[in-house]
Design a protein that fits this description.
The protein is mainly β and about 200 residues long. The chain has a single domain, classed as Alpha-Beta Complex (Sulfite Oxidase, Chain A, domain 2). The chain has two helices and eleven strands; from the N terminus they run βββαββαββββββ. Strands 1, 4, 5, 8, 9 and 10 form a six-stranded mixed sheet that branches. Strands 3-2-11-6-7 form a five-stranded mixed sheet. The longest helix has 5 residues. Pfam families: Oxidored_molyb. It comes from Sphaerisporangium rubeum. This is DMSO/TMAO reductase YedYZ molybdopterin-dependent catalytic subunit.
Length: about 200
């Protein structure tokens, strides 16, 4: 006599690389809050502004001349999909902060199209964040944030602003687009910080 009902297989073990509540996808879903901006790299600029108003600006060619890295990371979207082992190329954010006089604790990323998202500065340095311009060996498609996007893979993907064109360093934390309408201010997928109160 069987103790387990026929056809019952249980849940199985969740993938150890998946945060709680996430499912694995092999494709790369496209989710955006508005229309996809089409930014010509010849007109693209990236501006870093400190809390005192000091500005540094790079054209596309100047930006691409900065030291870059190829890196492989897992991505976790607040809509519960995860994509593992994605390979990117980009400039580490700490290279943009090199020789910048700042004591700011926070940053607000800005994008073409008006999108913003906030993040503590400590989450942008020490190999935690990049401004990425290549995905899987190819130039980054506009649908995935090209020509360049912020990539902070240890946080939910809405923190990795598509079509990024600048970072403003701040003394005070300022909620960005999604954070202002109910998404969690930090967004740690391992703690399921999806919405206010999580």
């Amino acid at each position: 006599m069987s103790v387990i009902s026929r056809g019952f297989r249980g849940r199985g073990r969740p993938d150890a690389n998946l945060p709680p509540g996430q499912y694995l996808t092999r494709d790369f879903p496209v989710l955006s809050a508005g229309p996809t901006p089409r930014v010509d790299p010849d007109r693209w600029t990236f501006t870093l502004t400190t809390e005192s108003g000091e500005r540094r600006e790079w054209s596309w060619d100047e930006f691409r001349a900065l030291p870059s890295e190829t890196f492989t990371v897992d991505l976790h979207c607040v809509t519960k999909w995860s994509k593992l082992g994605t390979t990117w190329e980009g400039v580490p954010v700490e290279a943009l902060l090199d020789e910048v006089d700042t004591a700011a604790d926070f940053a607000l990323a800005h994008s073409y199209g008006g999108y913003t998202t906030n993040v503590p500065v400590e989450d942008l340095v020490d190999g935690k964040a990049w401004v990425a311009y290549r995905y899987d060996g190819e130039e980054l498609d506009p649908e995935h944030g090209g020509p360049a996007r912020l990539l902070i893979p240890h946080l939910y993907l809405w923190k990795s602003a598509k079509w990024v064109n600048g970072i403003r360093l701040t003394d005070e934390d300022e909620p960005g687009f999604w954070e202002s309408v109910g998404y969690h201010n930090y967004g740690d997928p391992w703690r399921e910080q999806r919405y206010w109160g999580d």
